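hiii so um. not sure if this is the right channel but i have a protein structure encoded as tokens and i wanna go backwards to a sequence. like what aa goes where. can anyone help
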């Protein structure tokens, strides 16, 4: 059975919905195919205490900016889902839920694409792939050498401290997710070992304002791909920042509260974990990243000459370093009482089902602002699709508007 549409959008996260909004405004025939439910990633791919780290005023999907009474707060998981559901309802987005796309192919004859699902093949002149920035958990090879007695999971499967075996926990990676989960565990009373990586740190607040407020003024979120030092820099880990105005996430604070910071995991054999001697280096990198950001803000303050609160106000001064005098280089999971390892090792793309040669050697789609060389084939929602903010609630709308208009020109 075949169904024909002008545009098929695959995925009903923020990216797919933002585009559907513009196509609806333009009166274009389209359908959104979603394998789960609206906002599925937030329902099943995040932990219970998850909140966004972008303040609510940055939740700005087109035609539906955050309207609540806490613009400086941070949306928890259920509220993100509710926001997306309400958004879809406001313009009656034509979504088919529970429909997984198994392949996208070029039409054998003529123009356009075939979009295969388990039941139906859709024909479309245009296809927009909005299946998410982080579709597949990435586990490092070293995880395969860890004893089977140890429970191992990726951050996307972590829910809460009660859902993992009792005992101490080793969290590997200090990007955003690793730090938030390590804090969740620490607050529940668990002994946490935290293997650091070289990710940076943002202070939550600086000189009386949320750092995100300063960063928007500095053009941080509007930086384009060509302003990065290399194309690979777009895959760099996300710096850690708190989702709480009173308590900035900071590895030094974690250490003082009883968490045990470690160097990066290098190798594993059964219950022995070999750690790199780079803890001090990783802590210094996080401190330096924060320093660079705050210096940039100071420069901006000087340039425009505004009055600000004088205090540092990050909740933490980088000099308060608390690390073990003798670094741990060999961690014995048994004697440390560690029952669980949580790998905060990021995500990878997975476009094996797109049967069109639009990918580079690394499997990354080749595009310019989401537009590919295949007429009518687009990508939306990828980090740095065009700007730093491309995969954020704050920026995906701009890319969606661009693709809607590029596609309208094709008619
Ligand atoms: C841990 C974490 C924290 C983040 N924090 C923030 C934050 O604080 N602020 C912020 O703005 N952004 C944040 N982001 C980034 C970003 O907002 C999310 O990644 C966002 O979900 C991306 O939206 P999307 O629509 O591109 O993808 P998704 O929300 O992942 O939506 C893609 C949809 O496509 C569906 N799908 C996938 N494959 C198929 C298929 N084959 N057939 C049919 N449907 C399919 C999925 O079920 C899903 O519903 C965070 C991301 C992560 C991972």
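sure thing!! here u go:
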């Amino acid at each position: 059975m075949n169904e024909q549409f002008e545009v098929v959008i695959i995925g009903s996260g923020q990216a797919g919905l933002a585009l559907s909004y513009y196509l609806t405004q333009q009166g274009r025939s389209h359908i959104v195919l979603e394998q789960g439910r609206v906002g599925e990633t937030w329902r099943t791919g995040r932990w219970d205490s998850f909140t966004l780290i972008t303040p609510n005023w940055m939740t700005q999907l087109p035609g539906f900016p955050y309207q609540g009474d806490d613009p400086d707060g941070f949306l928890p998981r259920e509220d993100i889902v509710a926001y997306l559901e309400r958004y879809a309802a406001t313009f009656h987005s034509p979504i088919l839920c529970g429909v997984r796309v198994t392949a996208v192919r070029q039409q054998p004859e003529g123009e356009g694409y075939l979009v295969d699902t388990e039941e139906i093949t859709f024909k479309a002149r245009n296809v927009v792939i909005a299946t998410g920035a982080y579709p597949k958990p990435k586990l490092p090879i070293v995880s395969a050498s860890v004893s089977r007695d140890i429970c191992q999971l990726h951050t996307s499967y972590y829910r809460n401290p009660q859902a993992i075996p009792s005992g101490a926990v080793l969290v590997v990676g200090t990007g955003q997710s690793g730090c938030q989960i390590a804090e969740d565990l620490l607050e529940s009373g668990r002994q946490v070992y935290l293997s650091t990586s070289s990710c940076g740190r943002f202070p939550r607040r600086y000189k009386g304002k949320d750092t995100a407020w300063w960063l928007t003024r500095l053009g941080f979120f509007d930086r384009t791909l060509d302003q990065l030092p290399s194309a690979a820099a777009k895959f760099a880990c996300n710096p850690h920042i708190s989702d709480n105005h009173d308590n900035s996430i900071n590895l030094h604070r974690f250490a003082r509260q009883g968490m045990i910071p470690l160097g990066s995991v290098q190798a594993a054999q059964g219950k022995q974990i070999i750690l790199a001697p780079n803890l001090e280096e990783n802590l210094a990198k996080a401190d330096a990243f924060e320093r660079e950001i705050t210096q940039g803000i100071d420069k901006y303050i000087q340039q425009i000459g505004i009055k600000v609160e004088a205090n540092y106000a990050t909740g933490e001064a980088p000099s308060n370093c608390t690390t073990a005098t003798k670094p741990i280089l060999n961690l014995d999971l048994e004697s440390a009482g560690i029952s669980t390892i949580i790998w905060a090792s990021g995500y990878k793309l997975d476009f094996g089902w797109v049967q069109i040669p639009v990918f580079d050697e690394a499997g990354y789609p080749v595009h310019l602002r989401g537009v590919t060389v295949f007429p009518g084939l687009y990508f939306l929602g990828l980090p740095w699709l065009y700007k730093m903010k491309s995969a954020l609630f704050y920026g995906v709308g701009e890319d969606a508007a661009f693709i809607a208009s590029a596609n309208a020109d094709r008619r």
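oh and The pocket of flavin-adenine dinucleotide is lined by residues 10-16, 33-36, 40-41, 52-54, 100-101, 130-134, 176-177, 381, 391-394 (CB under 6 Å).
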